[in-house]
Amino acid sequence: MKTLYTPELAVIKKVIPQTPLETFFELELTERKTLGHKPGQFVEVSIFGIGEAPISISSAPEPDKPTFELCVRKVGNVTNALLEKKVGDKIGIRGPFGNGFDIARFKGKDILFIAGGIGLVPLRSLILEVLNRRPEYGKINVLYGCKTPRDLLFKGELKSWECGGTVECMITVDLGDENWQGDVGVITTLIPRVEIDEKKTQAVIVGPPVMYRFVIKELKARRLADANIWMSLERKMKCGVGKCGHCQMNEIYVCQDGPVFNYAELKKIPESI
Amino acid sequence: MSKPKVGFFSFTSCEGCQLVVLSMADKLFDLLGAVEVVNFREASSYKGEDYDVAIVEGALSTVHEIEEIRAIRQQAKILIALGACAHIGGINCIRNFDNQFEIKKSVYGDKVANFDSILAQPIDAVVKVDYYSRGCPPNRDGEEFVEIVTAILQGKKPYIPNFPVCVQCKMKGNVCTFHKERPITCLGPVTRAGCSAHCPSYGNACIGCRGLVEEPNLNAHQETLSGAGLTVEESLKFYRMLNGMMEVGK
Amino acid sequence: MKNYIVKKERLNDLIENLIKTNEVIAPVAHENFTAFAPLSSPDQIVWGAPQTVIPPKQFLYPQSEDLLAYEFSNDEVKITGLNTVKERILFGVHPCDLNAIGQMDRVWAEKNIDSNYPAKRKAMTLVGVDCLTPCSPEAICLRLGGLDPKGRFDLFLTDIGNSFSAEAATPKGEALIEGAVAAKAADKKKLSAVRKKRNLIFDKKEKKLLPKYQDLPKLMKANVDHPVWEEHGKLCYGCGSCNMVCPTCYCFDVQDYMHVSLVKGVRSRVWDGCMTEEFAKVASGENFREDRSHRLRHRTYRKLNYLFDKWGESFCTGCGRCIKACLTKIVSPLEIANEIYSRKI
């Protein structure tokens, strides 16, 4: 019997360690051709005997591509166990869940992507989607900040995101090391260096809760309207289907109506940020 | 993990926790299929030296025991504190609040000098403890103990609730001890669940044998206890029955 | 709605017959309270007071319910979805609990239909019983819309002296009453007289709700920062008692239980409570509702604001169980609403 809570199986096709904490996985469902997700959605990953955890999808939806990608940080039982898995192993998947980014809203606009730490994982699904259709968008900036150079995710591909110079990527770390020649400082220090046309720009922010407040303050100083700011929130999404109650903030089930929110809406939700 | 070698060790206690492990009946055989027991005082006289997992019951209450637990910790890759005495010092700590000399004299009489007893303390006052199988005794159906062993085999953190006993007591449909025809005062609202509210389900109060939750609301509890007619002195006594150690911290 | 009248002793026969072929669950004595339990004789039923310690939601949504089982062999895993369903008759349910079940029918079927609740619900026959006096000093059902069952039953009984009036809202209810006893049409006049008298008693005995019922969501929304949350929150144990005894609390946690042999296991859902410390805490350690006062506000808002707004009725049905269960007397939705109403900020 299949129920709302029965996972389907997926085979691990690739495992690539990214940082001491994070590992990249490429997965393929065994019973369906594709996951059929939108950028910004998540799946519930099952390790049988350990449990389930919500994990953001980090690949762009490509109709012909049978696989999808996750990038997982070791933080709890499920993610620890997932990081023990090898190519060929099977894990459980439910989803995709959540609203994802409304990509149509970004068409013809300048996009300012701002990612803090592991926030780059869900954001990557949108960045790749946008890069796949580069001509449909205006100016694109990617700002990415993390703690140290060791924590940088997707190091190998950040360069390719610049699309031969049509996208500007800026990276900063809180604390450099002897080999680091890039920027040092919190992510907000990058924002003044971006040209923002407040009429045309859509900012998309994903990062830890504390980052949102500072980044929004900075964007507001650049006169960006609330409705042009988007973000994706973290919550305890236990069931993924709007039942268990753990991810609720005010009247909203983040697993259903989120995790992507427009700031103009989010401002009305006291428990959100 | 290949079949880990397990040693059971006993300090100041009634050794009832080991008996509880032995009385897990059907679960015991499953456990024995998963681990190899090399030292088990209650079950056999064989003393193995080679163990990966040390399961320790009892509080530390002599200088000698302190030395022993240090030696065990050095050998064991994993150390599990079994039961309230090992976990929180338990009932042994009651005497910590009395005059130590008087107490010793009343027990050992004129031989008092031959005994190196010290203030009773839980295992983690001296060495690092990796897992706690809580309770006095650990819950009788053995579910949590088996959960801990299984979690170790799986390499995961076991699920131990951090909410008060009330959650499970209500699930059981028990009449709250404070609401009985003849009310009894209870430590359930501040004690960590995981016992399926065993004592209240049999008509007794919770005495806090699993230790307190991480964020107990002691002010609220003081209000509840005084509302039920307990003086501050009586409330303290109630806590000190098993949780005296909490007052001095760890 | 079809109306019948049934002599009391005939109803006893009906229950006696039902017990022979069905699992019949009804309130029976439980120390100085009552509890829903399977009957072996109609004499066990306790009509009216006192209230059961926990609501009958456990028979539709068990405290712990296995959702799936899995088994490993040769690197393959076999997964089986689980849902244990049993035909049951739930007898003697008070209107507050009938309303709560009606509300649960709505939330579990919303958007993604839960796979476990509806099947259990379909297999259940609901027989309610009218309360003629409040079943506990804590009851606030009249104030919060829980006293009128609004047709949320198969069969509903009202004590009108020597007989029960029986209203059947479904064919299941009709079959139950018609098949077992020779029933005749109810004396509607008598029934409405009984209800009128009942309402007067409840109005006299139950604590008053100061704001208007319909205004509750608005009142809550306007008072996110009212001092009542902090004052009451200070005395909250985070013990989840109010959640566990609530007929409309339905949040759950999910846990995997692996057999020690590591070859098989189950995934279960267990009742959880939004008032407990770790309810909104994520794996990385961030707790999105760390403050007890915020958790109290969240629980109250679910009952009187969010779900009220969404479904057009209070999701506190006024059973009073949480008010009884809360040892520090901080949780009553009615008292909180009254305090907010009378202490404007």
Please tag this protein with its features.
heterotrimer; A: 273 residues; alpha/beta; Elongation Factor Tu (Ef-tu), domain 3; Rossmann fold; 2 domains; six-stranded antiparallel β-sheet; 16% helix; globular; B: 250 residues; five-stranded parallel β-sheet; two-stranded antiparallel sheet; 11 helices; 7 strands; iron-sulfur (chain A)
Written description of the protein model:
In chain A, 16% of the residues lie in helices and 31% in strands. Chain A contains six helices and 15 strands. In chain A, β7, α2 and β8 form a beta-alpha-beta unit. Chain B has two domains: 5-154, Rossmann fold (3-Layer(aba) Sandwich), CATH 3.40.50.700; 165-248, no CATH class. Helices cover 37% and strands 12% of the residues of chain B. Chain B contains eleven helices and seven strands. Chain B has helices at 16-22, 26-34, 63-75, 84-88, 100-108, 143-154, 165-171, 198-201, 218-227, 232-243, 245-248; strands at 5-10, 36-39, 53-57, 60-62, 78-82, 117-121, 131-133. In chain B, the strands form two sheets. A five-stranded parallel β-sheet of chain B has the order 2-1-3-5-7. In chain B, strands 4-6 form a two-stranded antiparallel sheet. With 345 residues, chain C is α/β, with parallel strands linked by helices. Chain C folds into two domains: 2-205, no CATH class; 213-342, no CATH class. The chains are: A alpha/beta (273), B alpha/beta (250), C alpha/beta (345). Chains in contact: A-B, A-C, B-C. At the A-C interface, β4 and β13 of A face β4, β5, β10, β11 and α9 of C. Chain C: This is 4Fe-4S ferredoxin-type domain-containing protein. Chain C: It comes from candidate division WOR-1 bacterium RIFCSPHIGHO2_01_FULL_53_15. Chain C: Residues 225-257, 304-336 form the 4Fe-4S ferredoxin-type domain. Chain C: GO terms for molecular function: iron-sulfur cluster binding; metal ion binding.
